[in-house]
Design goal:
The chain is α/β, with parallel strands linked by helices. The chain is built from 9 helices and 8 strands. The protein has an 8-stranded mixed sheet with strand order 1-2-4-3-5-6-7-8, sandwiched between helices. The longest helix is centred in the last third of the chain and has 18 residues. The model has no long low-confidence stretch (mean pLDDT 95).
Length: 262
């Protein structure tokens, strides 16, 4: 495997590349790092030349003065611009990384071979986080920031504060409200891998509404793009960690350039 540090916009982004086969770029999500995705990455490298990296403030990337959707998108742009690939990569994104992938592909249609979007980039017809959800999401952000303390100084660290995480979740809601316009600009194959219970399997609280809304958003996209491939996994939002072998196999089937028997 090869590693490289990319410097842009005042931050340092670590990029790792390894494997064999067709190019594939894997973009992590909010509060996840390339080290967290090690199982999925190892499986994908059996069939693909895989590029992974950390978003600013995550993993071995440096901290930043600003954390926003556009700032994270600039990290993805910088990584892919630095690559010398024989052909455009299959772009795979998890959670926030899926949204970044859709924006990237809509702005640079010739720079990707296709998209695989894992539990993200959902064009929701209404906000995911309502006024009644704010207290719980603030608490979730606090929990995530507190849990991150134990990973300080490691490849799994996340340097964002609870306020950063909370503000980004609200911003992602706004981004997804306009996501259908982005999808309309993409002609490449798109495969969705979605969790059936993004908010967990509780029958009380916010979970039932959020799980229904998550499915409604996907149905909305499929009406707009009938040829979009969708796979539902019986999992919550941690599916990329709990169902890595199944996801790797779905990605393998979704890439028309993967050679049989590889």
């Amino acid at each position: 495997m090869r590693t490289k540090m990319i410097h842009h916009d005042g931050v340092t982004i670590p990029m790792t590349r390894g494997g064999r086969g067709r190019p594939l770029a894997l973009c992590p999500g909010l509060n996840s790092t390339q080290a967290d995705l090690h199982e999925l990455t190892a499986l994908l490298r059996r069939d693909h030349d895989v590029v992974t990296f950390d978003l600013r403030g995550h993993g071995l990337a440096s901290a930043a003065d600003r954390y926003s959707f556009d700032a994270f998108l600039s990290d993805l742009v910088a990584v892919l611009a630095d690559l010398d690939l024989p052909s455009p990569p299959l772009l795979v994104g998890y959670s926030l990384g899926a949204d970044l992938a859709v924006h990237y592909a809509s702005e640079r249609p010739d720079a990707v071979a296709g998209l695989v979007l894992i539990d993200g980039a959902n064009p929701l017809p209404e906000p995911f986080i309502t006024e009644t959800d704010l207290v719980e999401f603030r608490s979730l952000a606090d929990d995530l920031a507190q849990a991150a303390e134990q990973n300080k100084g490691t490849a799994h660290q996340v340097l964002l504060t609870a306020q950063h995480i909370h503000d980004l979740n609200l911003e992602i809601d706004v981004v997804r409200s306009a996501l259908l316009d982005r999808y309309r600009k993409i002609d490449h194959p798109i495969s969705l891998i979605m969790s059936t219970s993004i908010a967990g399997d509780s029958t009380e609280g916010r979970a039932p509404r959020h799980n229904r809304l998550w499915r409604t958003g996907v149905e909305r996209l499929v009406r707009e793009r009938p040829h979009t491939s969708t796979t539902w996994l019986d999992a919550d939002h941690r599916l990329v960690f709990t169902h890595a072998p199944a996801i790797a196999e779905i990605i393998r089937r979704a890439d028309p350039g993967t050679l049989p028997g590889c």
